[in-house]
Amino acid sequence: MATKSSKQMTAVSKLLDQLIKDGKVESFSAVEKPLKPVWDKLVCARCALCYLYCPDAAISRQADGYFDADQDLCKSCGICHRECWFGAISMQEVE
Amino acid sequence: MDTYTLFAGQFLPFNERYLPGGHNACAGSGTALALRHVYKALEDKSTDLAQARWDETPTGIFAASETPGAPVLIIPKAGENRLYICFDAEAVGKKTIPDQLIKKSPAKAAASGCLYAATASPSHPFDLIEKIRRGWSIAGSAYIHILCPCPMSWGFEMENTVRIARMAVEARVFPLYEIAEGHYNITVEDMRPRTVADYIGRQARFASWKKAQIATLQEQTDRLYAQLHNSAAHEMN
Predict the structure, then answer these.
(1) Which of B2, B26, B163 minimises the CB distance to A82?
(2) Is residue A1 over pLDDT 50?
(3) Which residues, including other chains, have CB under 8 Å from residue B154's CB and lie 6 or more apart?
């Protein structure tokens, strides 16, 4: 059963890709981009709270001591933005 | 600025060995956050972590009525001893009743032979990490009950996971304490607690609650916290 449903899923996603390519369906990722955290390095005190509270382990310390998020792992939950003591993190659309 | 400032978070190991990103948990999942800190606390015990197993329901003696089906991580220690870590997302079906919000399983675990039993919350990560390490190092079984807020089933914005967890502690619905070899100790104590209504009013799962129910929960919370405070103070003297 599992293989059958996964086959169906691939068929659906192939169809959807084709429809998006033809311009008949608008893809979600084109309509709304998820917001990602952006650090203001002038305000950031490097307290590591954002690193502590990230559930997805997306935030890591960079070589300069500041923090940055891995855009592939980040699920845009916004916990880092909410918990930042200094208000250094803002959620923005990132290219 | 760096000359005179010091932040505790910077002394943690900055590696993610056991819970790398890319897992399938929801955005803002409290369980994923708690699990990340548990693995961070136990990261130098890698050989034993490999033998850890998950159990769907709390087994035997810890079968607590308030956490049916909560996942429990069981890590074998020396001999027959185990470290039980319960990730309680309070997924208790459609109705949430006051009895399920107030946790009695640490006391039950302590009564049934665990040398160390504690509650922990991902909003207080250092407290959580210390409790996990203490539960690991003690010579006997240990039980740690972690509250994991779930944005989907509790009904709040996913960015507020840590806030809600902190509110549960501040409202004393989920007080952070430990029972080490029978000795009670409240690890995080707020002198000016929130009201229970403040905690409850921010979650959609309590939307149908009447004022009388909230008053009942407030009264139960106060009574149990007073009991807890009494037993902790009694140990001190």
Answers:
(1) B163
(2) no
(3) B90, B164, B203, B204, B205
Domain assignments of chain B as residue spans, ordered by start: 23-236
- Name the residue in chain A with its Cα closest to that of B39: A57
**Test the B interface: residue of A36, A49, A52 with most B CBs within 10 Å:** A52
- Provide the residue type at B182 as one letter: G
Q: pLDDT tens-digit profile of B11-61?
A: 777 777 666 666 788 888 999 999 889 888 887 776 667 777 887 665 555
Residue B213 C-alpha from the chain's centroid: 24
Nearest to B163 by CA among B122, B193, B107: B122
Per CB-CB distance under 8 Å, the chain A contacts of B10 are 46-48
Query: Residue B65: pLDDT above 60?
Result: no
Domains observed in chain A: 1-32 (no CATH), 33-95 (3.30.70.20)
Phi-psi region at B28: left, alpha or beta (left = phi > 0; alpha = psi -120 to 50): left
Please report the beta strands in B150-193, taking only residues with DSSP state E, as ranges in sequence order. Answer: 176-180, 183-188
pLDDT the model gives residue A89: 94
Spatial separation of the C-alpha atoms in residues B200 and A53, rounded to whole Å: 22
- On the question of pLDDT at B63 being above 60, the answer is no
DSSP B28: T
B108 and B179 in contact (C-beta within 8 Å)? Answer: no
Q: Could you give the ipTM of this predicted complex?
A: 0.84
Question: What is the Cα–Cα distance from B116 to B185, expressed in whole angstroms?
Answer: 11
